[in-house]
Amino acid sequence: RAHLDAMAATRSLNAFVVETPEIALARADEADARRVRGEALGPMDGVPVAIKDLFCTEGVATTASSKILDGFVPPYESTVSANLKAAGAVMLGKTSMDEFAMGSANITAATGPVRNPWGPEGDAFLVPGGSSGGSAAAVAARSAIAATGSDTGGSIRQPAAYCGLVGLKPTYGRCSRWGMIAFASSLDQAGPITRTVEDAAIMLGTMAGHDPKDSTSADIAVPDFRAAVNRGVKGLKIGIPKEYRVDGMPAEIEKLWADGVAMLKAAGAEIVDISLPHTKYALATYYIVAPAEASSNLARYDGVRYGHRTKANVSSLAEMYEKTRAEGFGREVKRRIMIGTYVLSAGYYDAYYLKAQQVRTRIAADFAAAFDQVDAILAPTAPSAAFRFGEKMDDPVQMYLTDVFTVPASLAGLPAISVPGGIGESGLPLGLQVIGRSFDEETVLAVGRAIE
Ligand code: GLN
C-alpha cells in the first residue's frame, strides 16, 4: 500500500502507463498468506516491482509504448514476468519506455515523455534515459523497489546511470525472450533495474533460466548470484580500454572513471591497460544491425493481428496496411524501419548489413582477446549525465552517441552492469560500467559491488 501511495504521489513523472493496484494487493495478500501459514518465503516474495511495458502480461494491456499496439491485451505472460510472479513478486504496474525500446531518453512513448526524478520540475526537466526510462524513474522515485528493463544497446544500463541506480544487462541468452516484444532479436536481453547490486543479483536469480520456448535461451544453470556479490575483487585483473577515452569526454566522466579505478585498486584488484581496437565501429555497426532486425520484427504490425487499425476508408488491403502503419508508428520507429529496410535491400545488403555483421564478429573477438588478459572491464556507462528534455531531439546522431559505451557489450552478447559512481559536478548521478565474460555475471556483480 505504501508503494501504491508513492506511485500515486509521483504520477507527474509519467513513469507508469498502466497501474495494476488490484493485482498488486492480491499478490501481496497471497505472499502474506504464505507467511501466516509459516511457509518458507523466497527473496522476491511480496516485493513490489514494476514491469516494463515491453513484457507481455496476461490480461493486462501491453503496448511497448506504441500507438500501434493500442488495445492489445496479451493472452499470455512473458517468461520473465511469469518467473517473477511465481517467485511471489508483486506487480505494481507497467512502465513507460521509448516506443518499441528505440531510444535513449524515454521521449517517444505514445503516452508522452517521462521525467527523471533527479531533475527540476517544470519545463526544464531532465530525461530519465531510455529506453527503460519509466522503470528507472519508478525505482528512483521509490514507488517500486525494483523493475524489469530490457537492453538492446544500453536500455537498462543508461537509464540506471541517469537515475542513480543499478542496471544489469545479463549475457545474451541468460533470460528468456519469450513474451518480450521484439526489437532486435539478436541483441534484446531482459534484466533488473534496482537500487543496489545485491538487489540486482537477487532479482536476476529469479528472472533468469533456460526456457524451451526461446531457442536462444541458454541451457546453463543459474548460479547463486547473491552469493557472488560479496566475493571481493582481490587478485582480479580489471581492464581499462583505451578506446573508451573518447574526444571531448567531460571532466566529470574522466574523474568518475579514475575514482572507480582507485576504488578497485584499494580493494586489491590489479588494473591493466587493454585495447579493444574495433570500438570505434561499434555504434555504426549497432545502428545497422538493430534497425535491420527491427524492420523485420515490426512487419507483424499490420492492423490485422494486433492493436490499432486505421478507421480511414480504404479501398485495398495494402492501403489498410499503409494507413495503419503510418498512423500507428512514431517518427523514430519509422526511421528505424526505413534504415533497416534499406540496409537489407538487395542492392545494399553486402555493403551495409553483411559488413556490419563482419565487424560485429571483430568486436566480439576484441573482447574475447581482452578476457584472456583480464577478468572484467571498467568503463563509464554513458558519456554524460542525464540531459534536458528537448536536447538532442532534433538530431538522431547526437541521440545515438549517448550509447557509445553501451553498444559494444551488446554486440558481443556480454554481461554488463551499471552502478552509481557518485554525483558529478553537475549535481547529477553518474554510472560506472563493468563488462564481464560470457555467462560470468558473478564477477560482474562482485566488481560492481566493490565500486557501488
Ligand atoms: N538507445 C539504443 C537504441 O535506441 C538502445 C535501445 C535499447 O537498448 N533498447 O537503439
Automatic annotation (TrEMBL):
Ranges where the Amidase domain occurs: 1-445
Organism ancestry: Bacteria, Pseudomonadati, Pseudomonadota, Alphaproteobacteria, Geminicoccales
Active site positions: K52 (charge relay system), S131 (charge relay system), S155 (acyl-ester intermediate)
GO terms under biological process: translation
Function: Allows the formation of correctly charged Gln-tRNA(Gln) through the transamidation of misacylated Glu-tRNA(Gln) in organisms which lack glutaminyl-tRNA synthetase. The reaction takes place in the presence of glutamine and ATP through an activated gamma-phospho-Glu-tRNA(Gln).
Enzyme Commission number(s) from the entry: 6.3.5.7
Stated family: Belongs to the amidase family. GatA subfamily.
Subunit structure: Heterotrimer of A, B and C subunits.
Species of the source: Tistrella mobilis (strain KA081020-065)
One of the record's GO molecular function terms: glutaminyl-tRNA synthase (glutamine-hydrolyzing) activity
SUPFAM superfamilies: Amidase signature (AS) enzymes
Record-given protein name: Glutamyl-tRNA(Gln) amidotransferase subunit A
Tagged with keyword ATP-binding: yes
Catalytic reaction equation(s): L-glutamyl-tRNA(Gln) + L-glutamine + ATP + H2O = L-glutaminyl-tRNA(Gln) + L-glutamate + ADP + phosphate + H(+)
Gene3D superfamilies on file: Amidase signature (AS) domain (3.90.1300.10)
Keyword ATP-binding included in the entry's annotation: yes
Pfam short name (any one): Amidase
Keyword terms, alphabetized: ATP-binding, Ligase, Nucleotide-binding, Plasmid, Protein biosynthesis
Source taxon at top rank: Bacteria
Gene Ontology CC annotations of this record: glutamyl-tRNA(Gln) amidotransferase complex
